[in-house]
Amino acid sequence: MSVLSADDRSQVNELLSTLEETVTVHVFTEDDCQYCEETLDLYEDVEGESDDIVIETHDMNDPLAEELGATKYDGAPVTVITRDGVTGVRYFGIPSGQEFSAFLQGLIAVAQGPGATELPDEVREKVQNIDQPVNIKVFVTPTCPHCPQAVQVAHQMAIENEGITADGIESQEFMELSQEYGVRGVPQINVNDDGQFTGGLPPEQFVDEVLSALE
Q1: What's the order of all strands across the beta sheet hosting 134-140?
Q2: H or E segment at 189?
Q3: pTM more than 0.70
Q4: Dihedral (C-alpha) 29, 30, 34, 36: value to the nearest 10 degrees?
Q5: Are strands 164-170 and 86-92 parallel, antiparallel or unpaired?
Q6: Looking at the chain, which terminus has fewer C-beta neighbours within 10 angstroms, N or C?
Q7: What is the fold of 15-214?
Q8: pLDDT (tens digit per residue) in 138-190
């Protein structure tokens, strides 16, 4: 069942026409999942607009789910955008509303790969020099206008450094997790379960906040 309008599909087609590498989108689902079917319908629309997007659907019991970090939190759908060694770009929940643009930008960024994301050169160098495992959680809602910026920067960091994983988390779908991390406003960003900051910050400030949390 198509989710996107004809105009939306046309815009997606134009946006993804710049892709030069094939990107694989792994989607993990489970029974009694409220938004899994809608997510798959959305991705089917996207796949239909680009020969360079491959959607692969898996059950959450698939060993690949644990390998790609899809089982880290309790719930589905979970999406992991991959190409070559890039495996740290993840969404927990359906990337709808404002987050759909972040999902599309994630596809483009993963296709570009390390060294070619939109991070400024000085920011990219800081990210590439991080020498410890980092997990960035970005709590979002579909109506938050500042959330896509935060998700995109986090995902670009994960692309530039294989030691970084970045999770865009739909806070209303993952309510227990949001409560655990005391989410009061979005985007809320948590770094390695300790550091926390909020807002759709520009890349320079975002990365400095992450580095501060790692000290």
Answers
A1: 53-59, 23-29, 78-83, 86-92, 164-170, 134-140, 188-191, 195-198
A2: strand 188-191
A3: yes
A4: 20
A5: parallel
A6: C
A7: Glutaredoxin (3.40.30)
A8: 999 999 999 999 999 999 999 999 999 999 999 999 999 999 999 999 999 99
